[in-house]
Specification:
With 948 residues, the chain is α+β, with helices and mostly antiparallel strands. Strands 2-1-5-4-3 form a five-stranded antiparallel beta sheet, sandwiched between helices. The termini are far apart. The protein is built from 31 helices and 22 strands. 51% of the residues lie in helices and 16% in strands. Helix 2 crosses helix 4, helix 8 packs parallel to helix 10 and helix 28 runs parallel beside helix 29. The longest helix has 58 residues. Bound molecules: adenosine-5'-diphosphate. The site of adenosine-5'-diphosphate has 19 residues, from helix 29 and helix 31.
């Protein structure tokens, strides 16, 4: 048979197959009718039913209506030709056809599945089909027999039920299995042995008139086939055995026929028992065989699966290893591994088997944490990427998966993937990425990276600083909408659209606006990043903030324009003018452009230049001028004569300095010159005025000198006559010439007193004119001031006379040595004391204290007199000064004494000061440098105690 129900689709069997099946129906039916017991309408077995059912069940349901008449006709023909009456034959034809239809419906689930025998479920369906179909047939056939009066109803039911169940259970399996894939015969010797046993037992059981209860023997042989030889062999043997056993039983042989022959059982029942036996045999061996086949198929699949797994393991491109827990339970040990794993771990299988996993790969603490869970079965797998342990080098991706069932000894598969190259590449990429990031973030320019749509994908730190926008605000926006990049992004679009590989960089300058609205001037450079195929992938825009530079340039321009009175000239190292301001042009009457490129020396007056530099030619003169100007050096400002455009002269004050930037050598020189014509003119006027003043001063000085000389001469001339007047007056007074009359005495006293005053005044005048003319000669003798006090007191005492005035001259215990003119120093003390006496009213006190204070000789004259108003004290030591108090009280005096005192004190290197107030007495203090008169005398050791 070429077709079979091996799939869910029921394919139509060929006409040849159908014909063979129908022939089978006929032959089996004809044979059965032939062997039916005499006097009975029905046969003892009916193998034809298996062919009828197969004809339907192996065909698609749509053909069944066409097949039914054929089955019916062949069935009738088999009966009629076997010798049955027409009516009975037609009746049985109908029942057989109905039975076949019912069985086919059940077997194929009304045509929805193929009729087959491959599983226990198929077997149960076959059994159910056999029972139901046989029941339908037996009832309908018994009804036909009854209807036609051909026999007993119940006997017919018994016999036909058994024979149809047996036929469907023993022959139909063969027809169902024949369509399956033919399998190559195996175990030929075993098959032969088993067939021999089957034939022998069948012959032994059924070929003789014997009653021994050994009918089970062929079933044992069939069980052998069921267990070992497969379904096709079994079904074939079962079918043949069933036919042979049925024929022999019908022929009166075998245990069933023999047993019945001697009993009073009805022949049909005997036949039914035989058929029941066959059905039971099928019931026994068919599920056994199906189970055995299933088992064999499973074993085969498992074997091939395990082979496949092993091949996969050994030939896998992934490193595979099996590991199991070490005795300690804290590590996993390699028990097997494939070549790839050995290669990844860097060793041979022999080296690696038995090694601990942790000794091969740096698994870290995670592994030791996960291991107990993996061993307990609470964690299903663990994965890591880790370096190999030295001396092995490299890095692996490791996946640990448990293979064992929970509860059994733990066993794990390890997958190892060499990721060294990937890891190295990744690290290299990370380093490159970091480098890129560092470069971007340390660049002091705006850097914007965009994709092909111009959407910003990367921004550097400087962009945030310069523009005030944060990265988040810029990312994802189209670059020409940001306000930073120029709004007309044609350049960028053009860059992205270029398809060639040329490395053209677009560059231009544009305005940008910061987040706070500040305007910036940016120079943009844009370029495209291309992939390995040369297609554009990103655009990089680099923007440099040149706002300050542009502003400075503007300022410089302004500076060059602004100053009109100052010339600023830039000179290159060759001495040519490179920059010139409008002040220069204005000063010299040139246009600015005319001066650029002109040698600088042309501006200077040649004769002056040659004279001042000593150069032989004006060309060399500039070099001499700037020679010796160091870095940041500058020449002194000096007046120079410049030549104007019309060869006129212009006086300027000029400096030259080195123009130099911080990095390079000198880049040129800067000349700054100022128009000083006006200034010089004013200076000349001033000098003339000063000259005049000097003349006047000289004249005044000679006048003063003439006056001094006059005073001196007059004083000299006066002194002699006054002295002789005073001398003669004394002679007249003391009566050495003639005794004066009593009335004359007061007159003579007055003449004498006034004469003395005149002499004092003349002496003062002479002293002052001597001081003025610097003709006074000071002595430099060691003088003990203390020792002078006696003569000083003697000179002053007469002035006190009969006045009620206490004069207290306190002598110091130690000497008060100074260097100077003793007479002049005495004069100082006499003068101060006489003033004190003169300006102190009766009842007052005049005190002189002397001593050494702070290394100086100190003379202090104190009185309780009329004092000097504080406002007038500034003029106290000027000539002819007289206080208002002295004048109002008409106390006589010339106002020359204190100026002479002051002159003497300063000539001795000392100082004089006064403390006084109106009507509160006065203190005059004179300080003089102490003279070192010997080692035993220590200066400054004594302090003058104030008078008590
Ligand atoms: P004369 O005493 O001749 O006027 P002086 O030069 O000695 O000239 O003094 C100038 C003036 O200073 C005096 O006229 C007087 O007004 C004032 N004077 C000087 N010594 C004293 C003093 N001890 N007490 C008050 N006034 C004094």
């Amino acid at each position: 048979m070429s077709t079979g129900p091996t799939s869910g689709d029921v394919r139509a069997p060929s006409w040849r197959t159908l014909l063979l099946l129908l022939v089978g129906v006929y032959v089996a039916g004809r044979g059965a009718v032939f062997f039916k017991p005499d006097g009975f309408p029905i046969t003892t077995f009916w193998p034809a039913t298996a062919f009828c059912v197969a004809t339907f069940a192996l065909s698609p349901a749509r053909r069944w209506p066409a097949l039914a008449p054929a089955v019916f006709v062949v069935s009738v023909l088999a009966s009629v030709t076997g010798g049955r009456a027409w009516d009975l034959s037609i009746g049985f034809g109908v029942t057989n056809t109905v039975e076949a239809g019912v069985a086919a419906l059940l077997l194929t689930s009304a045509g929805r599945r193929a009729a087959r025998l491959a599983s226990q479920e198929d077997f149960l369906r076959l059994l159910a089909t056999a029972l139901v179909a046989a029941a339908v047939l037996s009832l309908s056939a018994a009804s036909v027999v009854r209807l036609l009066g051909a026999g007993d109803f119940s006997a017919t039911v018994e016999s036909t039920f058994a024979s149809h169940v047996a036929a469907l259970m023993t022959l139909l399996p063969l027809l169902l299995v024949l369509g399956d894939e033919p399998r190559p015969p195996r175990r030929g010797v075993e098959l032969a042995a088993q067939v021999s046993v089957l034939v022998a037992t069948t012959v032994l059981v059924f070929a003789f008139q014997q009653t021994a209860p050994i009918a089970i023997a062929p079933v044992v042989a069939l069980s052998w086939a069921a267990l070992r030889l497969g379904l096709p062999v079994l079904t074939a043997e079962l079918g043949i055995f069933a036919v042979v056993a049925s024929l022999l039983t019908a022929h009166g042989q075998g245990p069933f026929a023999t047993a019945l022959a001697g009993s009073d059982l009805r022949p049909l029942l005997a036949a039914a028992l035989g058929q029941g036996f066959l059905a039971c045999a099928a019931l026994l061996v068919l599920p056994l065989c199906i189970a055995a086949e299933r088992n064999a198929a499973l074993v085969e699949r498992i074997t091939s699966d395990s082979l496949l797994f092993r091949r996969n393991f050994t030939e896998s491109l992934v490193g595979m290893a099996f590991v199991e827990p070490a005795a300690s339970g804290r590590e996993l040990v390699v028990v097997e591994l494939n070549d790839t794993a050995a290669g990844v771990l860097g060793g041979t299988e022999d080296d690696l088997v038995g090694r601990r996993l942790g000794d091969l790969v740096e698994l870290g603490p995670d592994y030791h944490a996960a291991l107990p869970r993996l061993l307990r079965g609470t964690q299903h797998g663990w994965r890591t990427e880790a370096p190999l342990r030295p001396p092995r080098e490299g890095r692996v991706d490791l996946l640990l998966s448990p293979l064992s069932e929970p509860g059994s000894t733990p066993f794990f598969a390890v997958q190892l993937l060499d990721v060294t190259t990937a890891y190295t590449a990744r690290r290299a990429l990370e380093v490159a990425q970091k480098l890129t990031n560092a470069t971007l973030d340390t660049t002091n320019c705006i850097i914007l990276v965009t994709d092909l749509e111009g959407v910003v994908v990367r921004v550097n730190a400087a962009t945030e600083q310069i523009t005030g926008y944060t990265e988040a605000e810029l990312l994802g926006r189209q670059v020409w909408d940001t306000g930073i990049a120029p709004p007309e992004a044609r350049d960028l679009r053009a860059l992205l659209d270029w398809l060639d590989d040329s490395d053209r960089t677009a560059s231009h300058e544009a305005d940008a606006v910061t987040r706070s609205g500040q305007a910036l001037r940016i120079v943009w450079n844009s370029d495209v990043v291309r992939d390995e195929l040369g297609r554009p992938s990103y655009a990089v825009m680099t923007g440099m903030d040149v706002t300050d530079e542009r502003t400075t340039t503007g300022l410089v321009d302004h500076l060059m324009e602004a100053s009109q009175s100052t010339a600023i000239i830039g000179i290159d190292t060759a001495g040519r003018i490179s920059v010139v301001n409008s002040g220069t042009a204005h000063l010299l009457g040139y246009e600015r452009e005319e001066l650029v490129g002109v040698p600088f020396h042309r501006l200077l007056k040649p004769t002056e230049l040659l004279e001042r530099t000593g150069a032989e030619s004006v060309e060399d003169a500039f070099d001499i001028l700037v020679r010796g100007l160091g870095r940041d050096g500058e020449t002194q400002a000096r007046d120079w004569t410049w030549l104007t455009r019309t060869a006129g002269e212009q006086l300027v004050s000029m400096t030259l300095s080195v123009a130099q930037d911080s990095l390079t050598a000198r880049t040129g020189y800067l000349c700054v010159a100022r128009d000083v014509t006006e200034q010089r003119h004013s200076q000349e006027v001033l000098i003339a005025a000063l000259d005049k003043e000097r003349d006047a001063v000289d004249r005044l000085r000679s006048l003063d000198q003439a006056k001094n000389e006059f005073v001196s001469t007059v004083s000299h001339e006066l002194r002699t006559p006054v002295t002789s007047i005073v001398g003669y007056t004394e002679m007249l007074r003391d009566g050495s010439i003639v005794e004066p009359l009593p009335d004359q005495v007061p007159l003579l006293d007055s003449i004498g007193r006034n004469g003395q005053r005149l002499i004092a005044m003349i002496n003062d005048l002479l002293m002052l004119s001597g001081l003025d003319a610097r003709t006074v000669h000071w002595r430099h003798d060691p003088v003990d001031l203390a020792a002078t006090l006696t003569s000083v007191e003697d000179a002053v005492r007469p002035l006190v006379g009969r006045r009620r005035l206490a004069l207290d001259v306190r002598r110091p215990a130690d000497a008060v040595p100074v260097l100077g003119d003793r007479a002049q120093l005495e004069r100082v003390m006499v003068n101060l004391l006489s003033n004190a006496v003169k300006f102190t009213e009766d009842g007052g006190t005049v005190t002189l204290e002397m001593g050494v204070e702070a290394g100086e000789a100190v003379v202090r004259v104190r009185d309780t007199g009329i004092g000097i108003p504080v406002a007038e004290q500034g003029a106290l030591f000027e000539r002819f000064f007289r206080s208002t108090t002295a004048q109002s009280r008409q106390i006589q005096g010339t106002g020359l004494g204190l100026s002479i005192v002051s002159a003497i004190v300063s000539a001795h290197g000392g100082s004089i000061e006064v403390e006084s107030a109106h009507l509160e007495g006065s203190v005059f203090t004179v300080r003089l440098p102490l003279a070192d008169l010997g080692p035993s005398r220590s200066a400054g050791s004594r302090v003058v105690e104030p008078a008590g």
